[in-house]
Amino acid sequence: METLLQQIVNGLVVGSVYSLVALGYTMVYGILGLINFAHGDVMMIGALVALQAILFAQKMWPSLGPLALVGIGLVVSIPTCMLLGYVVERTAYRRLRNAPRLAPLITAIGVSFLLQTLAMIIWGRGYHSFPQLISTVPMQPIEGVFVTPVQITTLLVSAGLMAALLLVVNKTPLGRAMRATAENHRVASLMGVDANKIIAITFIIGSALAAIAGVMVASNYGIAHYTMGFLPGLKAFTAAVLGGIGNIGGAMLGGIVLGLVESIGAGYIETWSFGFLNSSYQDIFAFIILGAVLIFRPTGLLGERVADRA
Amino acid sequence: MLTDTPSATMTTNPATTAPILQLKGVKISYGQITAVKGIDLELHAGELVCLIGANGAGKTTTLNAIAGTLPIATGNILYQGQHIEGLPAHQRLRRGLALVPEGRGIFTRLTVEENLRMGAYTRRDKDGVEADLERVYTLLPRVKERLAQVAGTLSGGEQQMVAIGRALLSRPKLLLLDEPSMGLAPLVVEKIFEVVRTVMREGVTVLLVEQNANLALEFAQRGYVMESGLMTLTGTGTELLHDPRVRAAYLGELD
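Predict the joint structure of the above. Result:
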């Protein structure tokens, strides 16, 4: 029972990060029909830029407290990633707006490699230890179940960001224009919507979320590295597909479900396989889910909610 | 009297007022295929003009080019005396040029109210928008009953009304309507045309594309007939309605 509870806690935390990253995939897909495979790498850049800013701030102002340092890391890395997302969209994807679908997809993979290589050139091939500014000393709210403050922070910040995003998308004129553009660019432009602007804003919002997710991942594991965006990126993509790609609520749900399945799976895989596999095989769950969704329910959990009539 | 040149038939408005819309030698191509082969068209403020013609004559293509969702190959489009060929669609709307597209172009996943509010996307005068919403509700009472409903679940007629209401919320000076009667029951069509007439009375200039030539010509002050990408006839609604060529080709009369 403790194992299950523990894995549920872990799953919620990691799942909330998947959700944040999945939102970037799903929003871009919803509006452009493009899988932006470079999105995970934007997250990686977010983590490394934050690391750089934190190290710099520690050197300049040694008296700064941990929260101030995290704040500085975010304040530098969020705008950097927003700019990066905008530049990628503007230079790589916009000119392929009317190209066959495969062209932007391949370009996205190319941008992913480009960002990884750039990060490798700037930060080197080694692993960087990411300062654990928020405590990782576990607490025990229930006997046998451990939660760290950084996990709690991750969960709360993710939940807050997702609530804010839902509010923007569903209740503001900007969000309305985003949904309208996602459904039909041409008609949205007939309403006076500058589709290019809305698309750019979508990339910028997704990249900001990715930057925050990157800092969370690095804070939780205490490590940053130029390939750290790849696997979480792929899993977040899986989460987006699981929830129904293009569907914002779906990305949130998909991320949480994927995190839970993965954590619980990792907790029990040894028992289930009679000791043949151990928890380091936890990654297989994401891809089993991806395969299963694509075969049995390609529209995802929340896909195709609305019937188009008349 | 019918003439083959549009400029000679300025029946409703004196030539002293500059036209609100002017097309000069407009050609539009899809790749290798030229859909519109050099057309002229003139609209004066306050007019209701219809554009009729068979399927594939280039009517929708022409409207899309005026609204800016389709580029033109050659020629000029002047709106209120200014060249707008190079303006993207969203900037043309800001100048008061609204299109209700063929097939209505409803945002099916948005609610009816959200659809209507999309029409006011460029406006910053909140009070004006609320007042205009109320006006649309009085004009289209059936729309008001369904504000919270997802627009994709509306019937075709209701969707058409939402599409027109939405266009009105941008406070257009020139309203382009692409086949508003398509696929709708006669009673609904009547209701929609009634709304268009009200809108016109409020001073909005209307360019109406219709396949239902009879209906359109009875309704409009002037008309253009389009055939295979060219303007072949123009005249007042009544003139065209009684023209043997029009009757034979579009009103299903054989003599």
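The CA atoms of residues 54 and 68 of chain A lie 9 Å apart.
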